């Protein structure tokens, strides 16, 4: 019962949210040189497993917690002041909002074409939900430090395969082979051209900001929010030991109440395993450096 992995995987845009069907459900990314980069990198995060949904919000009483957290790490303090995108871009680099960009309501076709140029037609068609691309991406990223957004708001299709749970005596363990389902996506993320993503982000930032305002934040910067999300994810503690599960409504929950209380984004990284999570954190560090002006990112905590 080994989880299958998609064959076409050179894209990072698609760490897709997994359906809650048969899967556990866990409830539960602005910018100088721009960077739609982080949008999709965070997306990548968001999606790797946020769909895995390994756990419902409520945690049943846990048996003896198995996994041990390497020293808990608080949310990372901002590494540098995060400039608002409008203030960060040199005047000569500014791209007029209109008429070059389509209206947000009419942006799906143009955004898909832009993504195809970077990721390829096969990957975009295989992994991307074609409607409401910008709105759903922004809503998903905004949810990464808390519970996940609803299925209809997720920008990526579910990752193929089913959750592998191992019976170990009286305990249910998350099978380590589950991480293999995400290997192609993590490999694609590692290979992504950050600069190309940055250019795309700069181009589309006005629409990303508009979509963020529609979520109820008219006076806040999406760029600032993206930096917060990246810092939150990079500060995810490393977990050692087997991941013990409990049966829960619609799937499974973590037996360790600390893990069960984690945000959707951190649970995604947990599901990737320490090696793949380190790759994602490193990429997020590159993205963050671009977001705050191309300076070198500090090592992830």
From TrEMBL:
<keyword id="KW-0282">Flagellum</keyword>
<feature type="transmembrane region" description="Helical">
    <location>
        <begin position="36"/>
        <end position="55"/>
    </location>
</feature>
<keyword id="KW-0969">Cilium</keyword>
<keyword id="KW-0966">Cell projection</keyword>
<keyword id="KW-0472">Membrane</keyword>
<keyword id="KW-0812">Transmembrane</keyword>
<dbReference type="Pfam" id="PF11219">
    <property type="entry name" value="DUF3014"/>
</dbReference>
<dbReference type="InterPro" id="IPR021382">
    <property type="entry name" value="DUF3014"/>
</dbReference>
<keyword id="KW-1133">Transmembrane helix</keyword>
<feature type="region of interest" description="Disordered">
    <location>
        <begin position="59"/>
        <end position="83"/>
    </location>
</feature>
<protein>
    <submittedName>
        <fullName>Flagellar basal body-associated protein FliL</fullName>
    </submittedName>
</protein>
């Amino acid at each position: 019962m080994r989880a299958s992995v998609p064959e076409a995987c050179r894209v990072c845009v698609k760490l897709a949210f997994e359906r809650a069907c048969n899967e556990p459900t866990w409830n539960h990314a602005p910018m100088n040189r721009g960077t739609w980069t982080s949008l999709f990198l965070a997306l990548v995060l968001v999606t790797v497993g946020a769909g895995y949904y390994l756990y419902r919000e409520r945690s049943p009483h846990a048996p003896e917690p198995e996994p041990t957290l390497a020293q808990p790490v608080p949310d990372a303090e901002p590494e540098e002041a995060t400039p608002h995108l409008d203030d960060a871009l040199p005047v000569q680099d500014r791209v007029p909002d209109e008429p070059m960009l389509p209206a947000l309501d009419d942006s799906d076709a143009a955004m898909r074409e832009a993504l195809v140029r970077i990721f390829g037609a096969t990957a975009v068609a295989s992994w991307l939900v074609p409607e409401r691309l910008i709105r759903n991406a922004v809503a998903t990223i905004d949810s990464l430090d808390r519970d996940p957004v609803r299925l209809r708001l997720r920008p990526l299709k579910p990752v193929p395969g089913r959750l592998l749970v191992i019976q170990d005596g009286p305990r249910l363990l998350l099978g380590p082979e589950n991480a293999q389902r995400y290997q192609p996506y993590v490999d694609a993320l590692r290979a992504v051209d950050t600069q190309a993503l940055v250019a795309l982000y700069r181009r589309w930032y006005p629409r990303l900001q508009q979509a963020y305002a529609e979520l109820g934040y008219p006076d806040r910067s999406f760029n600032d929010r993206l930096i917060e999300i990246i810092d939150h994810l990079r500060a995810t503690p490393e977990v050692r030991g087997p991941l013990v599960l409990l049966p829960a409504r619609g799937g499974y929950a973590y037996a360790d109440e600390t893990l069960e209380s984690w945000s959707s984004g951190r649970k995604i990284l947990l599901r990737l395993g320490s090696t793949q999570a380190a790759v994602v954190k490193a990429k997020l560090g590159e993205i963050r450096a671009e977001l705050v002006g191309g300076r070198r990112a500090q090592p992830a905590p």
